[in-house]
Amino acid sequence: MDAEAIKRSLEDSGLRCTPQRYGVMAFLMKHTGHPTAVEILEAVNRLDPRSSRATTYNNLRDLVHAGLVREVAVEGRAARFDAKGMRHHHFICDRCGKVEDMEWYNVPRPASGSLGKRILRECELIVRGLCTKCAPRHTSSRGH
Amino acid sequence: MDAEAIKRSLEDSGLRCTPQRYGVMAFLMKHTGHPTAVEILEAVNRLDPRSSRATTYNNLRDLVHAGLVREVAVEGRAARFDAKGMRHHHFICDRCGKVEDMEWYNVPRPASGSLGKRILRECELIVRGLCTKCAPRHTSSRGH
DNA sequence: ATATCACATTAGATATAATCTAAATGTTTA
DNA sequence: TAAACATTTAGATTATATCTAATGTGATAT
Predict the structure, then answer these.
(1) With 0-12 CB in 10 A as exposed, 13-18 as middle and 19+ as buried, what is A87?
(2) Smaller CB count within 10 Å for chain A: N or C?
(3) Residue at the smallest CA–C1' distance to nucleotide C10
(4) Residues near chain D (nucleic strand), Cβ < 7 A?
(5) 3-state secondary structure of A56
(6) Closest residue to D26 by CA to C1' distance?
(7) Is the Cβ atom of B23 within 7 Å of strand C at any atom?
């Protein structure tokens, strides 16, 4: 994990590299499991307990704004975050709400006719179903 | 608007056609603008003031569960709902959070290899950007 | 008819997620 | 250094959604 690279990417976006902000960014780059804001705060404070809830939310907002982090809203649950590294789609588990990355592939954009006067920024795929943990073990009969 | 059809679709899903539940369903079928739970409650009560917040959430949960209604989570805002009529994708405005339907077209599913042991239910496209109202008026120079 | 049972509804309490406030601290610039 | 600006903080507040316990409703059985 390249601390310098993180510092540079923050400063390129006009954000100071504070310990708290660095902590959020470094954690997101290392852990691709789409943590919630609270999970991020706890993880950052486990290493060095000096961040607060408000700061974590502030920094996540700033990082999303700067385009370094992506926010994924999940029905009925807390939002989840990931560092925008390699391009990928998302899989959301119907049962446990877990968000996982899916290998990137190109998706056809909507025809400009159906887009109208809207301005398109991005086009992402959300795949839904059951994650490996929540999928029934056997495809067979007695499964529940 | 075919009241009988709504009644039938509820009962086919094993849900009684109560006035409150009918109200939610009828409103969603008539208004395709992806209202929030609170907007739905207010609209239903404007016609006939006898539903409550809990009932609205209960009924929305049941309708989503039955597959008659879709819930769309939006970053930093209340969830939005629509009746599952014609198949469509979604456009979410970065600025105002409005959800709009986009004409349906087929999207390639992920390769079964990258899906692994996950069970796929659906595959939807989320298009992001600025809606017609939030897009700058002129493409020209002085735009803000 | 009335007892019963499952399903629905309700107001308000509670839980959860996220934002706001105002004061303090830290950093950069003039 | 002073002024300007950015950042952090604890706790209050707001927003969203769910839970609880009491009550209501409609179908069926007796």
Answers:
(1) exposed
(2) C
(3) B52
(4) A 15-16, 18-21, 50-55, 58-59, 62, 76; B 36-38, 53-54, 57, 61, 77-79
(5) helix
(6) B16
(7) no
Under an 8 A CB cutoff, do B91 and A118 touch? yes
Q: What digits encode the pLDDT tens for the residues A78-107? A: 999 999 999 999 999 998 999 999 999 999
Nucleotide with minimal C1' distance from the CA of B73 is D16
Instruction: Kindly report, residue by residue over B77-98, the tens digit of the pLDDT.
Output: 999 999 999 999 999 999 899 9
3 state SS for chain B? CCHHHHHHHHHHCCCCCCHHHHHHHHHHHHCCCCCEHHHHHHHHHHHCCCCCHHHHHHHHHHHHHCCCEEEECCCCCCCEEEECCCCEEEEEECCCCCEEEEECCCCCCCCHHHHCCCEEEEEEEEEEEECCCCCCCCCCCCCC
The pTM score is 0.93
Q: What is the mean pLDDT of residues A102-113?
A: 94
Nearest to A128 among B111, B122, B125 (CB): B122
- Which residue is it, tokens 């042991």? B117
